[in-house]
Amino acid sequence: MSRRITVLGLAWLAALGAGCSPADDGPIGACIPGDCLATCLSAGMSGGTCIDGDCRCTGGGDADADADAGRDDSGEVDPCAPPSCGPEELCGEAGGGDGADNDCDTQVDEGCPCTMGSTFPCFPGDPAPCPPGLPCLGTCQRGLEVCTEFGFEGCTGYVGPVPEVCDGMDNDCDGAYDEGLAGCDTPLVCPSSMAAAPMSNVPLNGTTIYAGSYDSWLWELFCPATIPTCPTPADPHARDTTVLLISSGTYRVRATIVIGGETFTCEFALLVQGAGLRVEMTWDTQGEGNGDTDVDLHLHQMSPNTDEFFTSADCYYANCKASSCCWGGAPEVDWGLAPTTDLSACRDAPHGEGDEWVAYGSCLNPRLDVDVIYCDPSVTDPTSESFCAPENINVDNPPTGQPFRILVNYYSQHSYSGVTNAFVNVYCGGVLRASFGPQELRNGGSYGASNDNWIVADVQFGSGRCGALDCQIAPINIVQTGPGFGPPWSSF
Q1: pLDDT for 250-294, tens place per residue?
Q2: Where in the sequence of the chain do the CATH 2.60.40.10 domains occur?
Q3: 193-272, CATH topology level
Q4: Looking at the chain, which residues constitute the CATH 2.60.60.30 domain(s)?
Q5: Greatest CA separation found in the chain?
Q6: For residue 233, is the peptide bond before it cis, meaning its omega torsion is within 30 degrees of 0?
Q7: DSSP helix/strand/coil, 100
Q8: Nearest 5 degrees, angle CA 458-CA 440-CA 146?
Q9: Cα–Cα distance between 371 and 388 in angstroms, integer?
Q10: Distance of alpha carbon 273 from alpha carbon 48, whole angstroms
Q11: Residues 444, 293: Cα–Cα separation, whole Å
């Protein structure tokens, strides 16, 4: 089976504070990840994370800035400015493309250097409806560009703005819906988009959409392709309800409301992104029908004492969950990183782990929020013990200059006989930076380290050329059978 490796463009993280511009990088006081993310999103950034005690935002500023905002006084284009229609195509801060059509000629990243076979989310035309790192407005959706021997070509699968029609959606992707259409009056007030953190119960507040009496109400959730089992809201027929969203990505939410016998719809994007470093892993043989195969996610810290996995330098199921971290009181995995005191970062973790974190009093860094052993792919209630959630490891406050290594261990195939395919997504500051897989795992007949170990990549936070911070990812993609660390650490 072919292996897909997608390393997305660099997400640059700039400090944001009261009265600070995106280029400022001074401290803004005690940093709480949930507050940091909300502050950055409200300022028009693509995400935010706590790093070295400071709140730092992904992106360069307001995506609605005009074309002149990207130029300095000399008239030259600023490569660190937010994308907008301008005189020339830009290749992003890293020089390898940014997925935006900066010169608005319907071609994306033409002339930008790239690695053969790599892919990148893209949006042709004016970047305003789909600014990189932010949810697209209305019905607009990003596509995918692929690097060939001639550079990036095409943008397959994107959905651009079209003339507005009377359907309760923002078809022209301008932030308003059904505007200017005769006979299309609606009692609904539909949001253009929402944002939330992963591992949280997200409120679906229908009262803000329509507060009057109604005949029926239906909430529907449409998940990104990276999520194999799409969760359902707690009560799809209640006006006000919640949905537990464990995975990162851009979802679409639809409310269908019957009022006085007439049907109205409201549909909008929901961007789910977390702080710091977040690694999510799934595999395609989950569940009793496949013998309950067990695949585990690991994150290793660079350590002077050991370069072996399955030790205290390695965050995994045996030492990094709320239920396994602290048998002696103190965390077994102690990398010198401050815990996250804002419990909203971990209190909704499924399988009882959230309650354990609350009892502990903080969210440790690093931590494994979900360890899936047995699950049922047909279960769509994300609060159920049987829900097939992705395994995920978080470092809310990642240090700079210190690499981490990602590994996937085929812990046991149990009664299954065949190939298991694993998938890994890496998020930095809430932005999907790399996607790996499908990766075949075949040797799972024993237990733990003796089976197949997929060494995925090294990740490190450091300084970027725009005076901020970035997350660099070095793919490794080696599968070895038996214990071992693999190749030397990557150079960044």
Answers
A1: 899 999 999 999 999 998 889 898 889 999 999 999 988 888 899
A2: 193-272
A3: Immunoglobulin-like (2.60.40)
A4: 277-481
A5: 72
A6: no
A7: strand
A8: 65
A9: 10
A10: 9
A11: 9
